[in-house]
Design goal:
lipid biosynthesis; N-(1-d-carboxylethyl)-l-norvaline Dehydrogenase, domain 2; 354 residues; 12 strands; Rossmann fold; NAD binding; G3P_DH_NAD-dep_N
Length: 354
């Protein structure tokens, strides 16, 4: 059995304690400097306030001040920090790790290089760890439809673990896999991360379509709820994710599989990115919508801003063409202008000829 350290006490990272405990592994939940209250609750009564339930009794909780003790003897780390904390997390781990350990991250995000290349957060994480003087750890990624509350309820969830080192993704998959947490190993890190990150951005216009349909005149007198617009946006979103992955030189199969369409579907079922889109679709400005969601990290905005930075370089090198990305173009204009206009349905699906 392995000793796992979950670094960051957010809901997704903490939810992975269920399959790990059910497999008989030793699980340590370590809070960041922002997780003091959560770890206090887990220490006191085993209760996780974010998941609204008790964690497995075998989980041992450690405060931020107990890092050395928490990481001593660990076999691998699951990073549960969000995309904004990747470099901080790497710098912190560099101080407490004395040998290379496999790291697997639940974080979804992308960064843009100066030439427009999209940088996977696993690469950013590894480089930041090395820059901070840490050991040469290999960082893997998780992609697929997995809501934290459902995993904590031991509901069936299907995901992909990706590492450039196949032996690591296979080893981690074997460690986590249970009768309800179904894990497939892969070496396709970049396409997985591009799909997993972009789906957050493309959830925003699905919410916009729903918000616009809920306005006066959106529901027919017969009671028809107007799901068609959101479905068309979803279809175009999948196509653009596939196009971007392929244009960047990678296998695009994940766009229509678990890390892409699968994760995209479940993200459109609810959550912060969908809610922001719904508020924008209802007629609220970006400032008004964000104020209503104050204190909530909204990944879609970060991804859209990253894509806006990446596009000039990608366009200059003729890697992508904007006529293939009407929805991304709409998203960039929405964020820039601070409000949602009509969705550009007439620009969708250019490959369908009349």
């Amino acid at each position: 059995m392995a000793t796992a350290v979950i670094f960051g006490a957010g809901v997704m990272g903490s939810a992975t304690s269920f399959p790990l405990s059910d497999k008989g592994h030793s699980v340590r939940l370590v809070g960041t400097h922002l997780d003091g209250e959560i770890i206090g609750e887990v220490k006191a009564r085993g209760y996780h306030p974010g998941l609204k339930k008790n964690l497995p009794a075998e989980v041992k909780a450690f405060q931020w001040t107990e890092l050395d003790k928490a990481f001593h003897g660990a076999d691998f780390i699951l990073s549960g920090v969000n995309s904004h904390g990747v470099r901080w997390s790497a710098e912190t781990l560099a101080k407490v790790l004395h040998k290379p350990l496999p790291i697997i991250a639940v974080t979804k995000g992308l960064e843009a290089a100066e030439n427009g290349d999209l940088l996977a957060l696993t690469t950013v994480y590894e480089k930041a760890l090395a820059t901070a003087g840490g050991p040469g750890c290999s960082v893997s990624a998780i992609g697929g439809p997995c809501i934290a509350a459902e995993l904590a309820a031991r509901g069936h969830s299907c995901v992909v673990f990706a590492s450039e080192k196949g032996e690591i993704s296979r080893w981690l998959a074997d460690i986590f896999r249970t009768s309800y947490y179904h894990v497939w190993p892969s070496t396709e890190v970049y396409p997985l991360e591009i799909a997993a990150a972009l789906k957050n951005a493309y959830t925003l216009p699905v919410g916009i379509a729903r918000g616009q349909a809920d306005q006066p005149g959106g529901e027919d007198s017969s009671g028809a709820r107007m799901h068609n617009p959101a479905a068309a946006v979803f279809g175009q979103g999948v196509k653009e994710i596939k196009y971007l992955i392929r244009s960047c030189g990678f296998n695009d199969s994940f766009a229509s599989s678990l890390p892409g369409a699968g994760d995209y579907y479940v993200t459109c079922a609810g959550g912060r990115n969908l809610r922001l889109g719904t508020l924008l679709g209802s007629g609220k400005s970006m400032a008004e919508a964000q104020k209503e969601m104050e204190g909530v990290t909204i990944e879609s905005l970060s991804i859209i801003e990253t894509m806006e930075r990446a596009l000039p370089g990608l366009l200059e090198r003729q890697i992508v063409a904007m006529d293939r990305l009407p929805l991304l173009d709409y998203l960039i204009r929405t964020v820039r202008e601070g409000s949602a206009g009509p969705l550009p349905f007439e620009r969708f699906f250019p490959e369908i000829h009349f």
